[in-house]
C-alpha cells in the first residue's frame, strides 16, 4: 500500500509538472479547474485501489463508474469551456509562420 501512495504522489507531481509546462497563460479559473481535475483523479484512484485492497469489489466498481464518470465530465469541461490550447494557437492565428 505504501508503494501505491508513492505512485499516487508521483502521478500528482507529474500532472502538476505537465500542466505548468503545457498550459502556460491560463487564467486563474482555468488553473483552478485543472487543480480540481487532478485532485478528483487522485481521489478516484485512491478510492478504487483502497476498496480493492480491502476486498470491497462492488465498492471499487461503483467508485469507478461514479467517480470516473465525473472525471470524464470534468475533462470535457476543461477542454471545451477552458480551452487551454486556444491561448497557444491564437498567437499565430492569421500569421504566416516561416521556418
Mean pLDDT equals: 83
Largest sheet: none
Helix content: over 70%
> Based on helices, strands and strand pairing, what is the structural class?
mainly alpha
Structural descriptors:
mainly alpha, 78% helix
Structure, explained:
This protein is mainly alpha-helical and 99 residues long. The protein has one domain. The protein is 78% helix and 0% strand. The protein is flat and about 45 Å long. The protein starts with a helix and ends in a 10-residue tail after the last helix. The model has no long low-confidence stretch (mean pLDDT 83).
Q: What's the quick description here?
A:
This is Reductive dehalogenase anchoring protein. The chain is mainly α and 99 residues long. It contains 4 helices and no strands.
Secondary structure layout:
Elements: H1 2-22, H2 28-53, H3 57-82, H4 86-89
